[in-house]
Amino acid sequence: MEILDTEIELTGKSIIGYSRANSTGAVLYGREATTGEQLDPPYYSASNGDLQQAVSLATEAFPTYRALSRKNRAEFLRAIAANIEGLGDQLIKRDMQESALPEARARNERDRTCFQLRFFAAIVEEGSWVDARIDTADPNRKPAPRPDVRSMLRPLGPVGIFCASNFPLAFSVAGGDTASALAGGNPVVVNAHFSHPGTAELCGAAIRDAAQKTGMPEGVFSLLFSAGHEIGQALVAHPDIKACGFTGSRRGGLALLKIAQSRPEPIPFFAEMSSVNPVFILPNALKERSDKIASAFHTSLVMGVGQFCTNPGIALLPRDNRGDSFVKAATEKIKSGQPGVMLNAGIFDNYRSLVAARSTDSRLRTICYTTSGQGAAPALFEVSTQAFIKTPELQEEVFGPASLVVRYNEPEELIDVARSLEGNLTAAIHWAAGDEALRDRLAAELESKVGRIIYNGFGTGLEVCQAQVHGGPFPATSDARTTSVGGRAIERFTHLVCWQDAPEASLPEELRNGNPAGIMRMIDGNRTRDAVL
Questions:
Q1: Is 410 an active-site residue?
Q2: Is 288 helix (H, G, I), strand (E, B) or coil?
Q3: Which one of the listed residues 75, 201, 218, 272 is annotated catalytic?
Q4: Of 3.30.420.40, 3.40.605.10, 3.90.330.10, 3.30.565.40, which CATH number belongs to 37-273+484-491?
């Protein structure tokens, strides 16, 4: 596979199909996250005309792109991965500058991004993801004959993608939303995040180049820069955009969701927004391995300076000597560490404001909190289960390395807390022998509250695999029925189509009698790769 040169000249211009925009609108700059220093080049906001052109090209590309063979679509995804790898240290350096992420994290995230692209390429190539179902005709059925009915998932059309601040690669221009939308047969128009425009342009160039080299129709991909919110809002509102994917704040997600739902034609809008990821530590688990759990809790809390969507924002502990020992051990680890640099100044200011507010909240006891230094220091607060249940705002996410310790007197209080929770991405249950009954009752309550239940672990660390669920009930996401990570993510950008008594030649190959696609299908209620006889 031919790959990009290792050095790309950054232009500061949006990518519209195979061309560059010539807009001279509002300017934004990437910035050194550690110093705030301005980085070249200046990035010019896309105009409304640029947006119209990008969506028009995507709309024109859709019929051709969705009709491509599985092999061609998979080749495109793999070419993107190869091109991103071909960017080498240029991509890593720019990513580190714009995000303050350490080199190991930047490289790991790049590798995950490329893995996701190849993961979806394999899904496309194998083909069974379309969930093909065939109920054959039965002319002798009584009281009425049964027609031949066949259905499968089909792509929706052009998709708008919003990049995340906290994952400049894996949840951004070439991240899981883009990969799954392209895999499903949908062109994409990406709205870059203002925090890392240089990183975005590099990845955008990699996708554009891969599209050209693999013969994709122009318009299968475009990348828009914007200094404000207008272009993103217009993207969601555009009548030819048929779905959107978003990862970010609750405020931003709800604003865009409202636009998506208020259109003359409402569209699917999958927003991952906020989560506190409660950690339930049961009595016997604490008795058996308190120090080990405390150490793992600290690691998960400060991972990525608390800027993962799955950092533990709530930990539930018994109000006894073992709970006190846990808090002491976690606090000692916090105090021995160093404050971390957050992704951008806005996120840092918001974190300091929220933590300062909690430090003066009379319902809370401050365990560990400091305002010294320029970085974000971890913070730990404590509250009773009764106060927590009565105070819904304590469930609001503090984006950063802060957590709330909820102390319970009786294990039954854990069930009450679980019932009071908002929707979350994850919940963890730490248990040991003797905790089984409580563990299973908790899990039953949490099924309707979270997308992923973790046993004796933490939410940080997200495996990309077929069974993964990175979603959850509102407000964790806007749609609890699906996921933004894993094989099922492709389903967000599809819809079901049914063919009744269709001529063989009119059917997609996945539904034809001989099964030329060779995929697993459901025929008259049975899973098989066999042909229809």
A1: no
A2: helix
A3: 272
A4: 3.40.605.10
